[in-house]
Protein backbone atom coordinates (compact mmCIF):
# COMPACT_ATOMS: atom_id res chain seq x y z
CA UNK A 1 0.00 0.00 0.00
CA UNK A 2 1.05 3.59 -0.41
CA UNK A 3 1.76 5.89 2.51
CA UNK A 4 3.82 8.89 3.49
CA UNK A 5 6.56 8.78 6.10
CA UNK A 6 8.10 11.71 7.89
CA UNK A 7 11.73 11.71 6.79
CA UNK A 8 14.60 14.16 7.16
CA UNK A 9 16.37 13.08 3.98
CA UNK A 10 17.85 16.23 2.37
CA UNK A 11 15.49 17.59 -0.27
CA UNK A 12 12.50 15.53 0.91
CA UNK A 13 10.85 18.51 2.62
CA UNK A 14 10.18 16.27 5.62
CA UNK A 15 7.88 13.83 3.77
CA UNK A 16 8.59 10.82 1.56
CA UNK A 17 6.18 8.55 -0.33
CA UNK A 18 6.69 4.89 0.53
CA UNK A 19 5.25 1.53 -0.46
CA UNK A 20 4.81 -0.72 2.55
CA UNK A 21 2.85 -3.87 3.29
CA UNK A 22 -0.81 -3.66 4.21
CA UNK A 23 -1.27 -4.03 8.00
CA UNK A 24 -3.31 -6.95 9.36
CA UNK A 25 -5.79 -6.43 12.23
CA UNK A 26 -5.17 -8.43 15.42
CA UNK A 27 -7.85 -9.33 17.97
CA UNK A 28 -9.97 -6.29 18.84
CA UNK A 29 -8.63 -4.31 15.88
CA UNK A 30 -10.12 -3.00 12.65
CA UNK A 31 -8.46 -2.25 9.33
CA UNK A 32 -9.67 0.94 7.65
CA UNK A 33 -9.25 1.88 3.99
CA UNK A 34 -8.54 5.57 4.44
CA UNK A 35 -10.41 7.78 1.96
CA UNK A 36 -9.34 11.19 3.24
CA UNK A 37 -7.02 12.75 5.81
CA UNK A 38 -6.94 16.36 6.97
CA UNK A 39 -4.22 18.71 8.15
CA UNK A 40 -4.02 20.72 11.35
CA UNK A 41 -1.64 23.44 12.50
CA UNK A 42 -0.07 20.71 14.66
CA UNK A 43 1.11 18.95 11.51
CA UNK A 44 3.21 21.97 10.56
CA UNK A 45 4.83 21.96 14.02
CA UNK A 46 5.53 18.24 13.59
CA UNK A 47 7.00 18.73 10.10
CA UNK A 48 9.33 21.40 11.50
CA UNK A 49 10.67 18.86 14.02
CA UNK A 50 11.45 16.37 11.24
CA UNK A 51 14.05 18.79 9.93
CA UNK A 52 15.81 18.43 13.28
CA UNK A 53 16.03 14.65 12.80
CA UNK A 54 13.02 13.67 14.90
CA UNK A 55 10.08 11.41 13.99
CA UNK A 56 11.78 9.65 11.06
CA UNK A 57 9.57 6.87 9.64
CA UNK A 58 6.36 7.96 11.38
CA UNK A 59 3.14 8.14 9.30
CA UNK A 60 1.83 11.73 9.74
CA UNK A 61 -1.62 13.29 10.25
CA UNK A 62 -3.95 12.59 13.16
CA UNK A 63 -7.15 13.06 11.21
CA UNK A 64 -8.73 10.71 8.74
CA UNK A 65 -11.87 8.85 7.74
CA UNK A 66 -12.55 5.80 5.65
CA UNK A 67 -14.33 2.50 5.32
CA UNK A 68 -13.91 -0.62 7.46
CA UNK A 69 -12.05 -3.11 5.28
CA UNK A 70 -11.24 -6.05 7.59
CA UNK A 71 -11.97 -7.12 11.16
CA UNK A 72 -9.76 -8.87 13.68
CA UNK A 73 -11.33 -11.44 15.98
CA UNK A 74 -13.59 -10.28 18.81
CA UNK A 75 -14.81 -7.15 17.03
CA UNK A 76 -18.57 -6.92 17.31
CA UNK A 77 -19.37 -3.19 17.02
CA UNK A 78 -18.20 -2.71 13.38
CA UNK A 79 -18.74 -4.53 10.11
CA UNK A 80 -16.93 -4.38 6.78
CA UNK A 81 -18.19 -1.38 4.81
CA UNK A 82 -18.96 0.83 7.82
CA UNK A 83 -17.84 4.46 7.42
CA UNK A 84 -15.65 5.46 10.36
CA UNK A 85 -13.29 8.16 11.62
CA UNK A 86 -10.46 7.65 14.08
CA UNK A 87 -10.19 9.52 17.36
CA UNK A 88 -7.11 11.77 17.84
CA UNK A 89 -6.06 9.98 21.06
CA UNK A 90 -6.36 6.28 20.19
CA UNK A 91 -6.53 5.33 23.87
CA UNK A 92 -8.76 8.10 25.34
CA UNK A 93 -12.14 6.46 25.01
CA UNK A 94 -14.09 8.17 27.82
CA UNK A 95 -13.76 9.66 31.29
CA UNK A 96 -11.14 12.19 32.39
CA UNK A 97 -7.90 12.78 30.52
CA UNK A 98 -4.75 10.96 31.65
CA UNK A 99 -1.25 11.93 30.53
CA UNK A 100 -0.64 8.32 29.50
CA UNK A 101 -2.99 8.96 26.54
CA UNK A 102 -0.52 11.41 24.98
CA UNK A 103 1.61 8.60 23.55
CA UNK A 104 -1.43 7.36 21.62
CA UNK A 105 -2.02 10.58 19.65
CA UNK A 106 -2.15 9.60 15.99
CA UNK A 107 0.61 11.00 13.80
CA UNK A 108 2.55 12.12 16.88
CA UNK A 109 5.79 11.03 18.49
CA UNK A 110 5.02 7.37 19.04
CA UNK A 111 1.91 6.38 17.04
CA UNK A 112 1.39 6.33 13.28
CA UNK A 113 -1.21 8.59 11.73
CA UNK A 114 -3.67 8.49 8.84
CA UNK A 115 -1.72 9.48 5.71
CA UNK A 116 -1.69 5.88 4.47
CA UNK A 117 -3.99 3.81 2.29
CA UNK A 118 -4.79 1.41 5.15
CA UNK A 119 -4.49 1.78 8.92
CA UNK A 120 -5.19 -0.65 11.74
CA UNK A 121 -6.69 0.67 14.97
CA UNK A 122 -8.49 -0.72 18.01
CA UNK A 123 -12.26 -0.95 17.44
CA UNK A 124 -12.69 1.26 20.51
CA UNK A 125 -10.81 4.17 18.88
CA UNK A 126 -13.37 4.69 16.10
CA UNK A 127 -16.61 6.60 15.68
CA UNK A 128 -19.29 6.21 13.01
CA UNK A 129 -19.32 8.94 10.37
CA UNK A 130 -22.63 10.87 10.41
CA UNK A 131 -24.77 9.86 7.41
CA UNK A 132 -25.04 13.42 6.07
CA UNK A 133 -21.25 13.86 5.79
CA UNK A 134 -18.90 12.79 3.02
CA UNK A 135 -15.67 11.06 4.06
CA UNK A 136 -13.75 14.19 3.02
CA UNK A 137 -15.87 16.21 5.46
CA UNK A 138 -15.57 13.56 8.18
CA UNK A 139 -11.77 13.62 7.88
CA UNK A 140 -11.78 17.19 9.25
CA UNK A 141 -13.42 16.30 12.56
CA UNK A 142 -11.02 14.41 14.86
CA UNK A 143 -8.68 17.20 16.01
CA UNK A 144 -10.21 20.58 15.13
CA UNK A 145 -13.87 19.64 15.58
CA UNK A 146 -13.45 17.62 18.77
CA UNK A 147 -11.20 20.29 20.33
CA UNK A 148 -13.82 23.00 19.77
CA UNK A 149 -16.57 20.66 20.99
CA UNK A 150 -14.74 19.56 24.15
CA UNK A 151 -13.79 23.13 25.08
CA UNK A 152 -16.94 25.04 24.20
CA UNK A 153 -19.65 22.46 24.76
CA UNK A 154 -18.54 19.56 26.98
CA UNK A 155 -16.56 21.77 29.39
CA UNK A 156 -17.67 25.30 28.47
CA UNK A 157 -21.44 24.65 28.38
CA UNK A 158 -21.96 27.24 25.62
CA UNK A 159 -25.62 27.92 24.81
CA UNK A 160 -28.09 30.39 23.36
CA UNK A 161 -27.53 33.79 24.96
CA UNK A 162 -23.75 33.36 25.11
CA UNK A 163 -21.21 35.32 23.08
CA UNK A 164 -18.20 33.56 21.58
CA UNK A 165 -14.91 35.12 20.43
CA UNK A 166 -13.30 33.17 17.60
CA UNK A 167 -9.66 33.91 16.73
CA UNK A 168 -8.95 33.56 13.01
CA UNK A 169 -10.71 31.40 10.44
CA UNK A 170 -8.78 28.13 10.59
CA UNK A 171 -10.10 24.70 11.51
CA UNK A 172 -10.82 24.99 15.26
CA UNK A 173 -12.11 28.55 14.83
CA UNK A 174 -14.73 27.72 12.21
CA UNK A 175 -16.04 24.70 14.11
CA UNK A 176 -16.51 27.05 17.07
CA UNK A 177 -18.32 29.55 14.86
CA UNK A 178 -20.60 26.82 13.47
CA UNK A 179 -21.46 25.53 16.95
CA UNK A 180 -22.29 29.06 18.14
CA UNK A 181 -24.45 29.75 15.08
CA UNK A 182 -26.30 26.45 15.48
CA UNK A 183 -27.05 27.26 19.14
CA UNK A 184 -28.23 30.79 18.40
CA UNK A 185 -25.28 32.24 20.36
CA UNK A 186 -23.65 35.48 19.18
CA UNK A 187 -20.19 35.16 17.58
CA UNK A 188 -17.39 37.69 17.22
CA UNK A 189 -14.68 36.81 14.71
CA UNK A 190 -11.23 38.37 14.39
CA UNK A 191 -9.23 37.71 11.23
CA UNK A 192 -6.33 39.04 9.17
CA UNK A 193 -8.52 39.29 6.07
CA UNK A 194 -11.60 41.33 5.12
CA UNK A 195 -12.60 38.69 2.60
CA UNK A 196 -12.49 35.94 5.26
CA UNK A 197 -14.49 38.17 7.63
CA UNK A 198 -17.19 38.55 4.98
CA UNK A 199 -17.38 34.76 4.73
CA UNK A 200 -17.50 34.48 8.53
CA UNK A 201 -20.42 36.94 8.55
CA UNK A 202 -22.29 34.72 6.10
CA UNK A 203 -21.77 31.83 8.53
CA UNK A 204 -23.35 33.75 11.41
CA UNK A 205 -20.55 35.96 12.77
CA UNK A 206 -22.18 39.21 13.90
CA UNK A 207 -19.19 41.34 14.95
CA UNK A 208 -16.18 41.16 12.63
CA UNK A 209 -12.80 42.73 13.44
CA UNK A 210 -9.69 42.74 11.25
CA UNK A 211 -6.82 42.27 13.72
CA UNK A 212 -4.27 43.61 11.19
CA UNK A 213 -6.13 46.93 10.80
CA UNK A 214 -7.20 46.94 14.46
CA UNK A 215 -4.39 45.45 16.56
CA UNK A 216 -6.23 46.63 19.71
CA UNK A 217 -9.09 44.29 18.83
CA UNK A 218 -9.92 43.80 22.51
CA UNK A 219 -10.77 47.51 22.75
CA UNK A 220 -12.98 47.27 19.64
CA UNK A 221 -14.61 44.12 21.06
CA UNK A 222 -15.41 45.80 24.36
CA UNK A 223 -16.91 48.79 22.53
CA UNK A 224 -19.02 46.50 20.32
CA UNK A 225 -20.35 44.61 23.36
CA UNK A 226 -21.13 47.79 25.36
CA UNK A 227 -18.31 47.01 27.79
CA UNK A 228 -19.66 43.58 28.62
CA UNK A 229 -17.13 41.34 26.84
CA UNK A 230 -17.66 37.74 25.76
CA UNK A 231 -18.74 34.66 27.70
CA UNK A 232 -16.57 32.20 25.75
CA UNK A 233 -13.19 32.64 24.06
CA UNK A 234 -11.47 30.15 21.79
CA UNK A 235 -7.93 31.21 22.78
CA UNK A 236 -5.95 30.06 19.76
CA UNK A 237 -3.14 32.58 19.54
CA UNK A 238 -1.12 32.01 22.72
CA UNK A 239 1.40 34.69 23.79
CA UNK A 240 0.31 37.16 21.06
CA UNK A 241 -3.38 37.08 22.00
CA UNK A 242 -3.69 35.92 25.59
CA UNK A 243 -3.66 39.28 27.36
CA UNK A 244 -6.22 40.66 24.91
CA UNK A 245 -8.37 37.56 25.54
CA UNK A 246 -8.18 38.27 29.27
CA UNK A 247 -9.27 41.86 28.61
CA UNK A 248 -12.19 40.59 26.48
CA UNK A 249 -13.71 38.06 28.87
CA UNK A 250 -17.07 38.92 30.44
CA UNK A 251 -17.88 38.43 34.12
CA UNK A 252 -18.22 34.71 34.72
CA UNK A 253 -16.80 34.00 31.26
CA UNK A 254 -14.57 31.16 30.12
CA UNK A 255 -11.29 31.27 28.24
CA UNK A 256 -10.83 27.97 26.41
CA UNK A 257 -7.03 27.70 26.26
CA UNK A 258 -6.11 25.78 23.13
CA UNK A 259 -3.70 27.37 20.72
CA UNK A 260 -0.12 28.27 20.01
CA UNK A 261 -0.49 30.20 16.74
CA UNK A 262 1.90 32.92 17.95
CA UNK A 263 4.12 30.59 19.98
CA UNK A 264 4.18 28.63 23.22
CA UNK A 265 4.12 29.70 26.86
CA UNK A 266 1.96 32.81 27.27
CA UNK A 267 2.78 34.76 30.44
CA UNK A 268 -0.56 36.47 30.97
CA UNK A 269 -1.46 38.91 33.71
CA UNK A 270 -4.20 36.85 35.35
CA UNK A 271 -5.43 39.56 37.73
CA UNK A 272 -8.55 40.30 35.68
CA UNK A 273 -9.65 36.67 35.88
CA UNK A 274 -10.25 37.03 39.59
CA UNK A 275 -12.05 40.39 39.35
CA UNK A 276 -14.36 39.00 36.67
CA UNK A 277 -14.93 35.63 38.38
CA UNK A 278 -13.86 34.07 35.07
CA UNK A 279 -12.36 30.66 34.31
CA UNK A 280 -9.63 29.21 32.15
CA UNK A 281 -10.36 25.80 30.67
CA UNK A 282 -7.28 24.01 29.32
CA UNK A 283 -8.06 21.65 26.46
CA UNK A 284 -6.14 18.95 24.67
CA UNK A 285 -8.40 17.63 21.88
CA UNK A 286 -10.86 15.12 23.41
CA UNK A 287 -12.04 11.54 23.79
CA UNK A 288 -13.97 9.09 21.63
CA UNK A 289 -16.98 9.93 23.82
CA UNK A 290 -16.60 13.67 23.03
CA UNK A 291 -16.30 12.81 19.33
CA UNK A 292 -19.50 10.73 19.35
CA UNK A 293 -21.41 13.47 21.20
CA UNK A 294 -20.23 16.06 18.67
CA UNK A 295 -21.34 13.83 15.81
CA UNK A 296 -24.86 13.68 17.28
CA UNK A 297 -24.92 17.50 17.36
CA UNK A 298 -23.61 17.76 13.79
CA UNK A 299 -26.36 15.38 12.69
CA UNK A 300 -29.09 17.18 14.66
CA UNK A 301 -28.10 20.57 13.27
CA UNK A 302 -27.14 19.31 9.78
CA UNK A 303 -23.71 20.97 10.10
CA UNK A 304 -21.17 20.40 7.31
CA UNK A 305 -17.52 21.18 8.09
CA UNK A 306 -15.94 23.91 5.96
CA UNK A 307 -13.49 22.30 3.55
CA UNK A 308 -11.33 24.93 1.87
CA UNK A 309 -9.32 22.73 -0.49
CA UNK A 310 -8.70 19.07 -1.23
CA UNK A 311 -5.42 17.70 -2.61
CA UNK A 312 -4.67 14.36 -4.27
CA UNK A 313 -2.48 11.92 -2.36
CA UNK A 314 0.50 12.62 -4.63
CA UNK A 315 0.22 16.32 -3.80
CA UNK A 316 0.23 15.98 0.01
CA UNK A 317 3.39 18.13 0.32
CA UNK A 318 1.52 20.95 -1.44
CA UNK A 319 -1.31 20.62 1.06
CA UNK A 320 1.20 21.25 3.88
CA UNK A 321 2.69 24.21 1.98
CA UNK A 322 -0.77 25.70 1.44
CA UNK A 323 -1.68 25.37 5.13
CA UNK A 324 1.55 27.14 6.02
CA UNK A 325 0.57 30.18 3.94
CA UNK A 326 -2.35 30.74 6.34
CA UNK A 327 -4.59 31.66 3.43
CA UNK A 328 -7.02 28.80 4.05
CA UNK A 329 -10.56 29.26 5.42
CA UNK A 330 -11.48 26.10 7.35
CA UNK A 331 -9.88 22.76 6.55
CA UNK A 332 -7.34 21.38 4.08
CA UNK A 333 -7.83 17.72 3.09
CA UNK A 334 -5.79 15.07 1.25
CA UNK A 335 -7.83 12.46 -0.67
CA UNK A 336 -6.44 8.96 -0.97
N1 LIG B 1 -4.91 22.12 22.59
C1 LIG B 1 -5.27 21.30 21.61
O1 LIG B 1 -5.60 20.15 21.82
C2 LIG B 1 -5.34 21.82 20.21
C3 LIG B 1 -6.13 21.16 19.27
C4 LIG B 1 -6.27 21.71 18.00
C5 LIG B 1 -5.57 22.87 17.68
N2 LIG B 1 -4.78 23.44 18.61
C6 LIG B 1 -4.09 24.70 18.32
O2 LIG B 1 -5.08 25.66 17.97
C7 LIG B 1 -4.56 26.55 17.00
C8 LIG B 1 -5.44 26.54 15.77
O3 LIG B 1 -5.28 25.28 15.13
P1 LIG B 1 -5.91 25.03 13.70
O4 LIG B 1 -5.45 23.68 13.25
O5 LIG B 1 -7.34 25.35 13.72
O6 LIG B 1 -5.12 26.14 12.85
P2 LIG B 1 -5.26 26.59 11.36
O7 LIG B 1 -6.42 25.91 10.70
O8 LIG B 1 -3.93 26.47 10.70
O9 LIG B 1 -5.64 28.13 11.50
C9 LIG B 1 -4.71 29.14 11.36
C10 LIG B 1 -5.45 30.49 11.30
O10 LIG B 1 -5.36 31.13 12.56
C11 LIG B 1 -5.45 32.52 12.36
N3 LIG B 1 -4.42 33.23 13.12
C12 LIG B 1 -3.08 33.16 12.98
N4 LIG B 1 -2.49 34.02 13.83
C13 LIG B 1 -3.46 34.65 14.51
C14 LIG B 1 -3.49 35.66 15.50
N5 LIG B 1 -2.38 36.22 15.97
N6 LIG B 1 -4.69 36.08 15.97
C15 LIG B 1 -5.84 35.54 15.51
N7 LIG B 1 -5.88 34.58 14.55
C16 LIG B 1 -4.70 34.15 14.07
C17 LIG B 1 -5.33 32.78 10.86
O11 LIG B 1 -6.65 33.04 10.38
P3 LIG B 1 -6.97 34.43 9.63
O12 LIG B 1 -6.25 34.37 8.34
O13 LIG B 1 -8.45 34.46 9.51
O14 LIG B 1 -6.46 35.54 10.50
C18 LIG B 1 -4.82 31.45 10.33
O15 LIG B 1 -5.23 31.20 9.02
C19 LIG B 1 -3.12 26.09 16.74
O16 LIG B 1 -2.25 26.81 17.57
C20 LIG B 1 -3.14 24.64 17.14
O17 LIG B 1 -1.87 24.16 17.51
C21 LIG B 1 -4.64 22.94 19.86
From TrEMBL:
One Gene Ontology MF term: oxidoreductase activity
UniProt domain Enoyl reductase (ER): residue ranges? 11-334
- Listed Gene3D superfamilies: Medium-chain alcohol dehydrogenases, catalytic domain, NAD(P)-binding Rossmann-like Domain
Q: Which domain of life is it from?
A: Bacteria
- InterPro entries, sorted: ADH-like_C, ADH-like_N, ER, GroES-like_sf, NAD(P)-bd_dom_sf, Zinc_ADH-like
PANTHER family named in the record: PTHR45033, ZINC-TYPE ALCOHOL DEHYDROGENASE-LIKE PROTEIN C1773.06C
Protein name as annotated: NADPH:quinone reductase-like Zn-dependent oxidoreductase
Question: Which species does the entry assign this protein to?
Answer: Bradyrhizobium sacchari
Amino acid sequence: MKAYHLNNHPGAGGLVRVDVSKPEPASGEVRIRVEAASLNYRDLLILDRVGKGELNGRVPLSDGAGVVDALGSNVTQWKVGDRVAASFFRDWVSGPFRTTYVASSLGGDTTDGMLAEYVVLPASALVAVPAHLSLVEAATLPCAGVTAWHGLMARGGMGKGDTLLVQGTGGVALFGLQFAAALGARAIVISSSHEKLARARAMGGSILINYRDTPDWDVALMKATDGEGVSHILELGGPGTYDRSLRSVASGGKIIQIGVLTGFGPKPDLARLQWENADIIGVTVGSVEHFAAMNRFLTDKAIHPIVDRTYDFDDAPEAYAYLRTGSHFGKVVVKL
